[in-house]
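hey so i finaly got around to running the thing on NAD(P)H-binding protein from Paracoccus litorisediminis. pasting the sequence first so u can double check i didnt mess up the copy paste, my clipboard has been acting weird all day
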Amino acid sequence: MTIAVTGSTGQLGRLVIAALKQKLAPSNIVALARSTAKAADLGVTVREADYGSVAAIETALQGVDTLLLISSSELGQRAEQHRNVIRAAQAAGVSRIVYTSLLRADTSTLSLAPEHVETEVALKQSGLRHTILRNGWYTENYTGSIPAALANGAFIGSAGNGRISSAARADYAQAAAEVVTGEGHDGKVYELSGDESYTLADLAAEISRQTGKDIPYTDLPEADYAAILTKVGLPEGIAQAIASWDVAASQGALYDEGRTLSALIGRPTTPLGDVVAQALTA
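ok and heres what it spat out for the 3d tokens, dont ask me to read them lol
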């Protein structure tokens, strides 16, 4: 079995490669990357592949049995990029694709959802064997803001009292490795999320507990939160998107209690406190 992974140099991709190396010989793992230099430290076969070139991706996929298509990070371009990968996989003779989608993509109010839905439809129409991993939020999406919270004395957001069933990236990476190397997953759509949920006030309380500092959660109107994110240097469109995702979280978009992720990986998902501790020592 030869398994290829797109987005191999990204945060999730690197964790997936590490998880796969626990299951397969490195020679059976192909890391696809725009920059092969960035992937040189992965310790597996590296091939250059650009989302914009079906021909280049097709060449990179020669001899590959299963492809893990980690969704692109380029918002607004992802649906077409993913279609290019699917077309290339068909032409290269790839027999199976596993795709990282979004929690409840078909009903989600998150602005991220439509491109994932387009990709899911393209997969179903491709005729290829496929599995869809609808990943919930990464806990690191929020713990990445801990340094700013400590510097400013408050954790800010627009998620209200919405409960968030996130999990660590490593949990989702392990699930992907289990599915691409396992049997019985064809045609399945897995809704993946953390075992436990929390509010951003809970997160702020955990940060306070671990640091010994009083870091309250301050809930802001969507426009005010977006304005602050823009002020600290984020592009306006990204800032508005992040704020809108928080509002969607306040309405339940990131909450799930299915515990499918822990069932796939055979262990509980990583507790919030552990991810906070990792962020504080990073």
